[in-house]
Amino acid sequence: MVQIKDLMNQDITLRPDGRAVDELRPVTITRHWTKAPEGSVLIECGDTRVLCTATFTQGVPRWRRDSGEGWVTAEYAMLPRATSERTDRESVKGKIGGRTHEISRLIGRCLRGVVDMRALGENQIQIDCDVLQADGGTRTASITGAYVALADAVAWAKAHGVIKQNKKVLKDCVSAVSVGVINGKPMLDLPYIEDSQAMTDMNVAMTGSGDFIEIQGTAEHRPFSRDELNTLLDLATVGNRQLQALQAQALAQ
Amino acid sequence: MVQIKDLMNQDITLRPDGRAVDELRPVTITRHWTKAPEGSVLIECGDTRVLCTATFTQGVPRWRRDSGEGWVTAEYAMLPRATSERTDRESVKGKIGGRTHEISRLIGRCLRGVVDMRALGENQIQIDCDVLQADGGTRTASITGAYVALADAVAWAKAHGVIKQNKKVLKDCVSAVSVGVINGKPMLDLPYIEDSQAMTDMNVAMTGSGDFIEIQGTAEHRPFSRDELNTLLDLATVGNRQLQALQAQALAQ
Amino acid sequence: MVQIKDLMNQDITLRPDGRAVDELRPVTITRHWTKAPEGSVLIECGDTRVLCTATFTQGVPRWRRDSGEGWVTAEYAMLPRATSERTDRESVKGKIGGRTHEISRLIGRCLRGVVDMRALGENQIQIDCDVLQADGGTRTASITGAYVALADAVAWAKAHGVIKQNKKVLKDCVSAVSVGVINGKPMLDLPYIEDSQAMTDMNVAMTGSGDFIEIQGTAEHRPFSRDELNTLLDLATVGNRQLQALQAQALAQ
Amino acid sequence: MVQIKDLMNQDITLRPDGRAVDELRPVTITRHWTKAPEGSVLIECGDTRVLCTATFTQGVPRWRRDSGEGWVTAEYAMLPRATSERTDRESVKGKIGGRTHEISRLIGRCLRGVVDMRALGENQIQIDCDVLQADGGTRTASITGAYVALADAVAWAKAHGVIKQNKKVLKDCVSAVSVGVINGKPMLDLPYIEDSQAMTDMNVAMTGSGDFIEIQGTAEHRPFSRDELNTLLDLATVGNRQLQALQAQALAQ
Amino acid sequence: MVQIKDLMNQDITLRPDGRAVDELRPVTITRHWTKAPEGSVLIECGDTRVLCTATFTQGVPRWRRDSGEGWVTAEYAMLPRATSERTDRESVKGKIGGRTHEISRLIGRCLRGVVDMRALGENQIQIDCDVLQADGGTRTASITGAYVALADAVAWAKAHGVIKQNKKVLKDCVSAVSVGVINGKPMLDLPYIEDSQAMTDMNVAMTGSGDFIEIQGTAEHRPFSRDELNTLLDLATVGNRQLQALQAQALAQ
Amino acid sequence: MVQIKDLMNQDITLRPDGRAVDELRPVTITRHWTKAPEGSVLIECGDTRVLCTATFTQGVPRWRRDSGEGWVTAEYAMLPRATSERTDRESVKGKIGGRTHEISRLIGRCLRGVVDMRALGENQIQIDCDVLQADGGTRTASITGAYVALADAVAWAKAHGVIKQNKKVLKDCVSAVSVGVINGKPMLDLPYIEDSQAMTDMNVAMTGSGDFIEIQGTAEHRPFSRDELNTLLDLATVGNRQLQALQAQALAQ
């Protein structure tokens, strides 16, 4: 960790909430938060609060039948007043916005990246990530929480004899965290106040083995250099390691 | 209360959760459950759990302008996995179902029934009731919780000088409860397991003064007599009085 | 009837159209108004004019298959210029409004309340209520007219050998009427001019045996007391009895 | 008329309803069929029955403002059970079908073809044609009936001082009729049973002066020759002249 | 041709692009413009440029199954910036406009008019006409180009053994052209600048044998007489003969 | 370049089209491909063919008014038969799919990343990228082509005096290219046949100065290591430099 801090010429007083640049917000993972779903996890990252549920269904969509393989899909949504200004419901507008689509697809890809579809067999797991309160990093919190719900749903299927105990459905764990450049300084885990003024914003999903499942870096406000990219990836690695430790702790309980 | 019990020839062991026929499920009302909304209340009635938020906005919709009066509107929705089977999202289907519309309109009418629109002035309050977990009575829990969120939003507006302190915006409180006839016996506050086998199902919204704001009684399975109606209304009166006491307690904290 | 009038301290000159408070508008029920449907009824209640058709189809929706039971469903709509101001078509807007949904569901429930689904067998009856001219009470006129169309469709099915003659598909008849409190006075069968100024508005669907199928009472403007409720139910009973006599007359022709 | 009959080598017994090939079905035009619209006409052509209403509104759509000219638009729809098989509502399907769009546009063009938009001034007339019962020729009956409703709406506007009495808003009348080739024989005014087996199907809208506003001829089943076209246009001329006489009669009452 | 010119009292300098009144714009037909479709044709008529593709699929829609007959359907669309003002995408608006529907249906009917559905067998051909650049006559160019794509798709099916070589799927060729009356003068093949000021506008689809598949004549601005109609049809015959020669040339390459 | 080849242990015969792993497909950029748009570019990358248009409009959307800043937005779409299997039109389905939304947003962000919104002033540029033929890399070809169309639209605005000549609206150029890992080997510019079997797929948008605007790396099939990421970024840098040279050449003509 020492190198990262040096590299960034860190100014500890910089962040509104007093965190160091490579420090996560407090994270809480609560399993079985609701009763009905096969996996149900409330994840809180600072003030961001997402309910992640996993629905296990036997059978797969038509296009996947007779393949011997399963499928994992995800939907992301926000309650209208998760945000400081009320957002109109997409159900009322009659269409799903681009941002929602983009994030739903991201979450789905990240989870599929750690699932052995053959071991899952012809079963489907539907992930729902509903943001109850939003303060930045909702998509990365969704991925991190959804992995735990996914693990619970797989365990449920094994406990109920739908999947054999010896199948290794989950090839690895996955978590995600946001990083960004604020006033020229790379930082880990941006709350809304920082995110909205970031020059560059990156979401990084990593496996427990330290490889990448998804990197999405955007620079609407100022392009970022290869050096900045490297620092951001270092920060993301730090954050994801901690998140994966918390996932493991939650699942061990 | 004595008369009611006599009238119903009550069999205390009848209900799956051991409640008496005129007994509410445990109710918890938590204010300020999320930070952003002007009013934010988590109401739990047994396993039914609804997040009710109230959004206060200055100004009214176009058709209401220059009337000197405000407006209160409501939207109801369920998370996909609030129920034992996953429900498809209405945003994904691209249209709002009839049941959602019906309940949203019911909640809106009940709250408008206790608001003095002239005292509210040209301001709008939008109520969002999102069911996080469903076990029967979601629409009545929504009304009961939404009233508390509404009261908080009105208080917020007064504290911020948007409405004068001396304006009496809320003419009365309002709560709602479900009653129904199960195997010929009228009962108070039906969880899902009872609701699904009810011959008659009625939702009753009442003011603190004991008058009715809305009565919706349905008998798809067996018509109900005037006598049954009277017993159901007695039960609803019992339930609403208790709910209003809990509302008052919550608002007093 | 005497008691009701006493109770209401009736002022005969009160109503714009000169009716007594417990008097229905003139009602006409015309069967076979169009040729194609298995049941086709034009009902006129004062200036309100609704075309109610019943479409009989063998087979049921997928979720009902192999249950041995039938299904009855209803859709309500208004022609754009049924009203004094033109209403935009819901087909053009691309979505069905809440009011339409609410009324369609109400009509469906009321008719299902008198149908023995097992006697109907795996057949479906679709009710369409299209308001050609609206002057208050369109949803109650729809229910009253739709019952006659439903009876014709059942008779058609028996005449065509789809349902055995000895099956008692209709357990009872059903009609509906609106009642309301205007300037503090309960009244029967509100035309638009009264409906729009009602403090309380209630729609009551009753069977021939005098029991209730549906009660929907709303008090956006002023809550109503238990006493008022009782008077309104008395008025509704008077009205529904007359409507059911007219249904029987029409069906006897 | 003599020439036409010769030209067609007419076989009087050919048509299911016993009509001659150049004979219209019985036509009834009833004005003021509903009370609310500025023009409201029920037109019956055989068993085809269309309610045509005209809504007069001061002001024009945004793109037409400050042009000094008015606008006329039309919407066509069918009740679900106007046809022998029930048609799903377009409002329920959430989109308007191609056939509906095509016919709505046709009606609008035909009526605009006889309106002097400058004389109309910045006012809009919306035509609604709702088919209550369909037996072929619904689009042509709509045009013929809508013209009468349009004339009534213009008269209403003059009577209410919205348009000056001396303005000649209607340049001419317009009516429409279908013609087609059945088993090689051109015929006038096709009911559904003929229409569905027509090789060629043509709708012809003409002014009182005998000119064409719209010709739509389609030959999915067998192309038609210039000679056949000429015979069809002769038949359409015969039919439209009679329809225009009936329009004039109706408007004279 | 001599008669036509006389009849029209032609003024050669009349047209903005210097053409004679009975002269087509330059037409180019390029086959195999894209690689994937079974038929892919870029047709250019002056500055109008339409990509017409034909997709051959084995099997037919459900309603056509076990009929032994095939089906041909068409969809028309415009790129947003095919026009001088950008047009909003219909996918973004969420609904297809009336004009698009009308033209899609026209193209489908015209092509079906020359296809022997029995010879096609239970196969479907989907035509897509996408306007890349619009300068009037996009619907007629679509029909003319789509016929060539259709012929290529049929040839593909024969070459791949899906249809027997000896089946005569195409009964005839079909092309279409626009004609119109401008300042009182009938003219052939209107570019946008002429089309927008036409009193009468007609689209005429004809077979190689000189018969009509579809005639659509519209006169929003001034009705047209039988004589004008005849002249317009003469012009359309001239134009379609030339277009059919170009289709044959293209297919011969 | 030497290092990259060494690093990848390159096998020149690996790729179906005979390219080296760090070799782009042939690229053609044609400006002014259609006449109407302010910028209109056809870009061809191998068989991928995208029409990119830029529409310049004075004024900005409401939320941007009085900010003194402009806006750039983008929409991506595919013709139905750009692909080997026909894709249903999103306009017909009535909603935009997630993939379309995701790519449209990506293109918009990349272009905004090089635009000085203050120099653009309160003007809007709408980018439309319509894929005429798809063979992998459609989103990156869209970005590369759209930049040229954007530059033309800015030049048009300067030529027409809407933007002052001395304003530097474009801060830099931007291009994008896909890279991926196939059978363990990183490669540049994947056609469909490679893309569909890629373990990892990354799209990289870079400025002329060599910084990143957007990185999107996805590993549904196998996570990628930091070393692989670095090689992929090296390849993307090689590709983007060449694309930017081609953009400059095209704009110089």
Describe this structure in words.
Six copies of one chain form a homohexamer. The first copy, chain A, is of the alpha+beta class. The first copy, chain A, contains seven helices and nine strands. Chain A has a five-stranded mixed beta sheet with strand order 1-2-3-5-4. Chain A has a four-stranded antiparallel beta sheet with strand order 7-6-8-9, sandwiched between helices. The two termini of chain A are 29 Å apart. Residues 1-10 of chain A have low confidence and may be disordered. Chain A binds chain F through residues 95-99, 101-102, 104-105, 109, 112-113, 172, 202, 206-207, 209-221, 223-226, 229, 233, and chain F through 95-99, 101-102, 104-105, 109, 112-113, 172, 202, 206-207, 209-221, 223-226, 229, 233. Chains A, B, C, D, E, F: InterPro entries: ExoRNase_PH_dom1 (IPR001247), ExoRNase_PH_dom2 (IPR015847), ExoRNase_PH_dom2_sf (IPR036345), PNPase/RNase_PH_dom_sf (IPR027408), Ribosomal_Su5_D2-typ_SF (IPR020568), RNase_PH (IPR050080), RNase_PH_bac-type (IPR002381), RNase_PH_CS (IPR018336). Chains A, B, C, D, E, F: Pfam families: RNase_PH, RNase_PH_C. Chains A, B, C, D, E, F: Phosphate binds at residues 99, 137-139. Chains A, B, C, D, E, F: One of its GO terms (biological process) is rRNA catabolic process.
